[in-house]
User: What shape does this take?
Amino acid sequence: MIWNKEIECADRETMRALQLKKLKETVKYEYDNVPYYRKKMDDAGVKPEDIESLDDIRKLPFITKEDIAANYPTGLFAKPMEEIVRIHASSGTTGKPKVAGYTRKDLEIWGECVARAMASAGQDSKSVVQVAYGYGLFTGGLGAHIGAETIGATVIPMSSGNTKKQIMFMQDMKSTALACTPSYALTIAEGVAKEGIDPADLPLKAGIFGAEPWTQGMKESIEKGLGIKAYDIYGLTEIVGPGVSISCDENEGMHVQEDYFYPEIIDPETLEPLPDGEIGELVFTTLGKEGFPMVRYRTRDLCYLMREKCGCGRTTVRMSKILGRTDDMLIIRGVNVFPSQIEEVISKFEELTINYMIYVGRENNKDTFDLEVELASGLAIDNIKFIEELRGRLDHSLRDMLGIGCKVKFLNEGTLPRSEGKAVRVKDSRNL
Ligand code: ADP
Ligand code: K
Ligand code: ZN
Assistant: This one.
């Protein structure tokens, strides 16, 4: 199902013309209304009139997470508070949260984008969408909510947590879609199994999962555990929240709502633009947002762009799954390690659940690297021969993937903490 065929299936020329028109307006708007960015442009010697083509975007200075922090809380807002009708903020694991402000029009844009996402996941006005993302400053809950409402679905605003009640409502209200983080979806799937419910008996058809990185292996576990098709929804508070992009039935990347969010991929070191297909840092310019517009915002998320025709009929550019956040990258004994690489390895082992915990520390001037994994149900941790054989195979696969080894500890199923929101899978005590 395609929500907005005219835009989502527009030909390249039409889309580029629309983007250029909106880009020019955005840059002028930003220059006129955000003094901090005006100064950046002045320092770089670039004026709004210098934007004559889409490629001219490269002349513009970036906005970074540090710029947002330096302007905490509302210094980069382009509208007076009177016109701001909603505030959200990202969790801000380090330092102050990043605060975003929305005008009425911004909420409409957000609703439109998430509506496209809901439709891509097969939902319509007859659907019942259970939102199990947290409601609050976090954009997950109200983001999924506004999209489900825009398509006219029945929204169940559960928020996260209380897994038993989630499952009860899912059955009693005949929810057709579940929107939550992939790690919480997995927790719910485990709950379903624990209650002896056959996933095929659930009315649930689709999952709209995002807000954290997840692998194909994780996707398969969730799809099996809930008897659904899982879709990947991407977004970030600074740009709008979830709905910046969504996967389709082809499961080959996420279609970017590029009439509102213009994507670029840059080399995070040289800051030079990279061609389609090359992995780098994702940068977004919002096209038409009023309250908290962003020009060339560096997301720190790593992915690549695809412009080949998609089987679903949409013509919008696709971004690959998020392969990691530069923030999440661990440097262990000089080697770059992403938690998602570990998840990918673990997901290939039937003997393990997909839960894990990474511990990094420092002893005798050397990095320590420990990994806890869980045995799948019914497997005996006291079967030493089996465990040692499994350890051997796991060590080998991890070393293949990461280039370094780690110390693995096996746990019984259900030992590791389960997530209701964004999962915490790394404890790095080196930074304490
Ligand atoms: P934060 O997690 O930085 O406090 P947000 O709640 O705004 O703030 O989350 C945005 C971030 O979450 C993105 O920059 C990205 O790293 C991650 N994210 C969101 N959706 C996805 C997704 N579908 N796949 C992978 N990562 C995602
Ligand atoms: K107001
Ligand atoms: Zn598609």
User: Anything to note?
Assistant: Residues 362 and 368 are 5 Å apart (CA to CA). The mean pLDDT is 96. The pocket of adenosine-5'-diphosphate (ligand 1) is lined by residues 90-92, 138-139, 210-213, 232-237, 299, 301, 322, 325 (CB under 6 Å). The radius of gyration is 22 Å.
